[in-house]
Specification:
homodimer, alpha/beta, Rossmann fold, two-stranded antiparallel sheet, 9 strands
C-alpha cells in the first residue's frame, strides 16, 4: 500500500467530535476537518463514486446545505446532472413540496416540479444519516416524480439512531458507520 | 468540433430566466437547469478548473448554500481541500465571523477559526456575482486568516450590478457574463 494513499479506516481520524453541539448532551460529528483534507476528500468521493458507477445514474439529488457538497461532486464524477432540494421559498421555479417531522415541529423541502422524469435513475446523497427523517422526505419527493431511487449515499451513518429503518427497501450505502 | 461537446456559448441556453423572483421586478438567473444537464455541468466545472489548475490551490472556499455546489466539485477536481463558509450558528467548532450589509439590514457569515493558515493559496467560489457584498465578506474572512486569495470564481456575473467594483485587486473569473 502506497503510504500516500489513504485507507478507508483513516477517514474516521479526519472527523472530529464536537461536544454539546447543536445543544447540550449531543456529540456532533464534524466533517469539515475531513473536507479540508484533500486526500480524505478525494478518498471519500472515490469510495462513494465507485459504489454507484455501474448504476447508470442520470441525476444526483442533494439536500440543502451540506448535501450539496458530496452531491455535486458525485454528479460530476458519475457524469450525471445535479438536482438541488431546498428549503421552502429558495427554488425560483414551480416546485413540489413535502412536509416532514422534526424533533419539535415540522419543516418543508422543495424540488422543482420539472427536475426529474419518469424512470430517471437517481442517486440521493447527503453527508450524514441520523434519524433519517430528512432523507425519507427527499425520497418521497423523488418518488412523486416517478423516478427510480438507484441508491442513497452517505459519508457517515450514526447507526444508534436507526435512521436506516425509515429507509428500508432503499439501497443505502454509508462510507463510515458509528 | 465534436457535436457532443458543448461550447461555452451553449451554457447560457441552459440557464433560465425566472421573472419576479425573489420579488417583483427582478429577473432571476436560474442555474438549476444548467446543473441538471450533465454535459453543461461538466463543461462549466472544466472551464472553471482549467482557469485555476496552475494556481496551486490548497483550499477552495465555498459559501452556503449554492456556493457549496461548484466549490466542492472544484476542490475535488483541483486536488484541494474544501472549506465551507456558513451562516451564523451552523458551524460546530470555534469560528470567526464577519457582518455585512444587505439591501435591508445585515447578515453574518462564519468560518472555522482553524480552517486556513498563513500563506494558504485559496480559491473562493460562488455560483453568481451580483452586488458582490457576500463575496467581499468572504474575502475578508479569508484575509483575516492570512491566506492568499489566488482566485475568485463564478459561473455567472451580472455585470450591470457592478459587483466587480467591490472585489477590485482580486483575480476574478466568471464563465458567463450578462
Amino acid at each position: 500500500m502506497d503510504k500516500l494513499t489513504l485507507k478507508k479506516s483513516d477517514l474516521k481520524n479526519r472527523i472530529r467530535d464536537i461536544h454539546d453541539f447543536p445543544k447540550q448532551g449531543i456529540i456532533f460529528k464534524d466533517i469539515t476537518t475531513l473536507l479540508k483534507d484533500k486526500a480524505a476528500l478525494k478518498k471519500s468521493v472515490d469510495l462513494l463514486a465507485n459504489k454507484f458507477k455501474k448504476e447508470d445514474i442520470e441525476f444526483v439529488v442533494g439536500v440543502e446545505a451540506r448535501g450539496f457538497i458530496f452531491g455535486a461532486v458525485l454528479a460530476y464524477k458519475l457524469g450525471a446532472g445535479f438536482i438541488p432540494i431546498r428549503k421552502k421559498g429558495k427554488l425560483p421555479a414551480k416546485t413540489q413540496s413535502v412536509t416532514y417531522e422534526l424533533e419539535y415541529g415540522t419543516d418543508v423541502l422543495e424540488i422543482h416540479e420539472d427536475a426529474l422524469h419518469e424512470g430517471s435513475r437517481v442517486l440521493i446523497v447527503d453527508d450524514l444519516l441520523a434519524t433519517g427523517g430528512t432523507i425519507k422526505a427527499v425520497a418521497d419527493l423523488v418518488k412523486a416524480q416517478k423516478a427510480i431511487i438507484a441508491g442513497v449515499a452517505f459519508l457517515v451513518e450514526l447507526k444508534f439512531l436507526k435512521g436506516i429503518q425509515k429507509l428500508k427497501d432503499l439501497p443505502v450505502y454509508s462510507v463510515l458507520k458509528y
